[in-house]
Design brief:
Structural class: alpha+beta
Number of strands: 14
Low-confidence stretches: none
Oligomer: single chain
Helix content: 10-25%
Strand order of the largest sheet: 11-12-7-13-14
Mean pLDDT: 90
Order of helices and strands: EEEEEEHEEEEEEHEE
Shape: elongated
Distance between the termini: 40 Å
C-alpha cells in the first residue's frame, strides 16, 4: 500500500550547522565537521528555516519508508558525533605471553601476541584517535562508523588461529564498551 506523501523531519540543535548540497549532508559542530552522501531515487531532502531537515517521498512504499528512516538515523548519528563524539574501549588480556600494544597516527601494533615474532598491525581510519594507556585502548572520533571499524580492526588482529582452545587461550584485545554503553 502506498502513501501519498511520506515526510520525516530532523531537528537541528542550536550549536550545530547543517548544510545541504544536493544529496550531500554536511554537519558542522563544536567537535568538527562531518559529511555523508544520502541518495536514493524518489526521496528528496529539503531544508526548512535552517533548523529542520525534511525527508520526503511521494507515493511511498514500505521500502521508501525504511530508506527514509535509515537516512534519518544517519543524520542523527552525524549530529551526535559533532556534538558529543563516539568512544570505544578495548581491554588487552593476556595469560601466557605478555603483549605490548603501541599506537601511532596511522596504525596500532601488537607485539608478542602468543609469542609470535612478527607484530600484528591494524589500520586506524581517518578522523579517529587511538590512545593506549596500560591495558586499556581508547578509540575516539566524530564518525560512528570509522570509530567502530577501527575498534573492530584492532580486535580482529588478535583473533586466535585454529588448533587453539579458546577456553584456555583467552589472549587478545576485546571491545568492552561502545560510546559509554558497557557490553
Amino acid at each position: 500500500m502506498r502513501q501519498e506523501l511520506l515526510q520525516e523531519k530532523v531537528k537541528v540543535p542550536d550549536n550545530v550547522q547543517l548544510v545541504l548540497d544536493g544529496s550531500t549532508v554536511k554537519v558542522v559542530g563544536p567537535k568538527g565537521s562531518n559529511h555523508r552522501d544520502l541518495f536514493y531515487p524518489f526521496i528528496s531532502l529539503n531544508m526548512e528555516d535552517n533548523k529542520t531537515l525534511t525527508l520526503s517521498a511521494k507515493n511511498a512504499t514500505r521500502k521508501h519508508k525504511r530508506i527514509i528512516n535509515t537516512f534519518r538515523s544517519h543524520i542523527n548519528n552525524l549530529i551526535t558525533g559533532v556534538i558529543e563524539g563516539y568512544e570505544h574501549k578495548l581491554k588487552v588480556c593476556y595469560v601466557h605471553f605478555p603483549m605490548t600494544v603501541t599506537a601511532s597516527s596511522t596504525e596500532v601494533t601488537v607485539k608478542n601476541f602468543l609469542g609470535a615474532k612478527l607484530p600484528l598491525i591494524s589500520k586506524i581510519l581517518p578522523q579517529v584517535k587511538v590512545v593506549v594507556s596500560g591495558d586499556v585502548i581508547t578509540v575516539t572520533g566524530i564518525d560512528k562508523e570509522s570509530v567502530g571499524q577501527t575498534a573492530a580492526n584492532i580486535e580482529k588482529s588478535t583473533v586466535l588461529t585454529n588448533r587453539r582452545d579458546r577456553r584456555k587461550f583467552q589472549d587478545g584485545c576485546y571491545i568492552t564498551s561502545k560510546s559509554g554503553k558497557p557490553i
